[in-house]
Write the structure tokens for this entry.
Amino acid sequence: MIRRISAISVVFATLLIASSAAADDGSFTDLGYDLENPPDAQIEVEGYFRTRGEILHNLDLDRGPTPSGDHLFPRPLSDTGGNTLRHTDMRLRTDLRAYSPVGAAAVNLRVDVLDNVGFGSMPEGPPQTTASQQPIETMRIRRAYGEALTPVGLIAVGRMGSHWGLGMLTHGGDELDSDSGDAADRIAFMTPMVSHIWAVAFDATWSGPQTRRRDGNRSLDLDPADNVRAVTVAMMRFDSDESIQRRRDAGRTTLNYGTYFSFRWQDQDVPAHYLPAGEPDDLDSSDVMYRGFRAHAVDVWGRLVLPFAELEAEVAMLQAQIDQASVVPGAEFTEPIRSLQFGGALESEVWAEGWPVGFGVDTGFASGDPAPGFGAFPGPFDDPGEPGDLDGPQSNPPDDNRVDNFRFHPDYRIDQILFREIIGTVTDAVYLRPHLTWRVGEWGPGRLHAGLAAIASWSMQPTSTPGQRRPLGLEINPSLLYESYGTFSFAVDHGVLFPFAGLDNPQAGRSASPAQVLRLRIAMEF
């Protein structure tokens, strides 16, 4: 049991690195963009209502269970002969921005209602007799922060979006098809100097156990030593989309770039506060233990826009060490857990003036770990993985004291099936993605676009894959998108995955078979 709990602590520690970064959508390049010239209205409201339906066929690849007895993807409960699942969900998102009547200041709020809630998932009464759905009793407030323009720069305080570059490492979730998005409790300061934006941010990531004060209206952090904190320093040169378009129309080249360094740390820990078996209401000094967690993140981003092409790239390095990985006071390990992770992504598109067709090649990589399973989302108290498992903890102290698999943010998507659904994100892999875009033209009050992409992928570590081989698969993704000038959109996405040897089941002597996904998305924006 100690080994299992410690493995989870290591996984938790390495997750901290990936979220210790800086920002873009709802962050450094977005904060304060309109405070110098605020709009006439003191309150602005925008958002969207989104509905998505999907059909998922054979996403377990019909290759049987892994050595741990799990399938690569859920199967229908009642029909063992079929392998098709269907799902529909929705989301109402509202972004509110209130400007101060005097002075350059604003307060921002993001509220999500029915966030990814499935159709028919909240019946009022027994399934056979329900005539209504349960009322909405809660809302998810994802962001709430204020910002003010001072003579020396912009200051922002509160829970704000966290996004940087391509969104490979930290993603704000602002895209129409995003499912999650990062947010940080942050104090940030930004100022322009020598044609660049310079920023520093302090993040309060975790405050540990708290108690109520005498009046019952406020809480109190019981131990500052167990807090997880992060400091980020960033520099960037950035142009708005409007400015880039003007320069492109004039035949000029635009170069944007940025880099940041982030440091995150935790000295002490109180695992009884967050473990399922803990007793958070009855804590004392015996529950406090040394953690010694240190993590560094370095990220470099660049974008080159030519009159006929665009290139955008991001590369990141994460390093961490946790001196004491155990979460059981008194049951300690003698060796620290270390991590060194690398990842990168490149996007490109080429087009010619007056041509309706553009093309490009995207590529990316995420460092791997030789432990069984990809290590994308190891669950709490998971046992160490067996060769042939899809996922599992990448460390197994005291025998294996490293976690080296880099993980892309799940909202940074390159396909429809393998990394989006089966693995869950890009990790321990390299991919190549040629793509083609056809601007079909005007259709009614909007425009119609068609796209086609092919994604070939390989594992960095063959021991991580279910088939114990590097080749993962080839996926074909055709798509259609109709946009009615910012008020309505309709998208159809299809995916076919042809799995390779890395997804086979050699223990059972079975080969993986193709999988398909069909998705429809309708969105009304305001």
User: Anything to note?
Assistant: The chain has one domain: 2-123+137-211+221-281+289-525.
